[in-house]
Amino acid sequence: MKFKAALAAGVLALGLTVPALAQDSGFNLSIDSAALATEASAREAYDRLETRIADYCSQFVEAEQCTDQVMTAALEQIGSDMLTRIHAEAVAAESEPVITAAVYETR
What secondary structure, in 3-state letters, does the chain show? Predict the structure, then answer.
């Protein structure tokens, strides 16, 4: 199944509205423009966006592909350099290898 992320963001008096996947109007997220004013509030908005997209896409067999496409389209529509940077940092952190070690005491 191919997902088409067709987002249309409009600027409203209260902020930005991001409706997702045109096939289904079940996903909408409003982000107040004030939420993008500071690093801390933008991180909160990103976390909310990421959670909502993951929840929405979990209904599809190809949830990871859906999540990637909807996130990319949402970031393009919102147009916030800070949100885009936060997303790039999150993606980089996910792809960094995790090294674990165990220490055993022998007797």
Answer: CCCCCCCCCEEECCEEEEECCCCCCCCEEEECHHHHCCHHHHHHHHHHHHHHHHHHHCCCCCHHHHHHHHHHHHHHHHCCHHHHHHHHHHHHHHHCCCCCCCCCCCC
